Amino acid sequence: MAGREAKGTGSKYHRAFMDDVPRDTQIPKAAAFILLSGALFALMAATVKAASSELPEAMIVFFRNSMGLMVLVPWLVFGRSRGFSTRDPLGHTVRGLAGVAAMYCYFYAVARTRLADAVLLNQCSPLFIPVVERVWLGERIPPKLWLVLSVGFCGLLVILRPGTTLFTPVSLVGLASGILAALAQVGIRRLTRTEPVTRIVFYFGVVGSLVSAPPAAFVWRNPSPAIWGALLMLGVFATAGQLSLTKGYSFGPAGLVGPFVFAGPIFAGLIDWVLWNQPPDAFFIAGATLVILSGTLALRLREEAAPEIET
């Protein structure tokens, strides 16, 4: 931004991806894009659950990336994209590896537990983002934020219910997907400083396809025609969701727009109810409420802690 200088590393990180458009016109757009991404990712999770009845997760991860890449490439070639050249190949690689690792964990959990539980555990990443920022970017975690994060972790315990059958390796793998997703989201926000949305999603598809191809080949099975259709829709939902999420974060600060990601478990819960007749129970509602409240407060406290920009 011409004529402006950011004070401190935190300010550069939190503000650099904002456009020079007035903020009051950006936030509604950001919220709309992130809500849309929540619905699309919930539909994606439903197609993963359907495909996992026939295929191993390694194949589904490969198809999610390769199909998504096939959907995106024509847009990049024939659309108004800014090309494939990137200034930050390392950033794309780190974000891609973290995202693919999160995807393996997430798809494993989706196939073996209730859809809403898997989606919420994956989307609890706002609770882990401050820790990732501390380790990766060296940013300080305010004391109040530690208290808020503690409430969120209590919510996760309510959902996981230690001492019951739900507190299993499957649920812990789902939780690991949320931690890895936090790493990937920090990578996205760093990349938006220099990279357009479509290029970020494109390179994620490239890294994901290359990394997931060997494991998929090792366990390959020929999908049935119905599963081919599900895999195609998986690519469409995943790519559209990634574009919407990345676009949403490019329009507004995380503290204001990030909480809208928690619409995802709500959409997933509705799909559970309609398709699999699995309404949410009291433990899930109570735990989800704590996670959503603490995640929202965590994002807002992080934004308030960022030093203001001098004019």
Provide an overview of this structure.
Helix 2 crosses helix 4 (89-112), helix 3 packs across helix 10 (225-251) and helix 7 (143-160) packs antiparallel against helix 13. Helix content is 75%, strand content 0%. It has one domain (25-305). The longest helix is centred in the first third of the chain and has 29 residues, at 23-51. The protein is built from 13 helices and no strands.
Number of distinct beta strands: 0
| Mass-distribution shape | globular
**Discrete helix count:** 13
How much helicity do the residues have? over 70%
Question: What structural class should be given to the helix and strand makeup?
Answer: mainly alpha
Jot down its keywords.
311 residues, mainly alpha, disordered N terminus
Summarize the structure.
The chain is mainly α and 311 residues long. It has helices spanning 8-15, 23-51, 57-78, 89-112, 115-122, 129-137, 143-160, 169-191, 197-218, 225-251, 254-257, 263-276, 282-305. The protein is built from 13 helices and no strands.
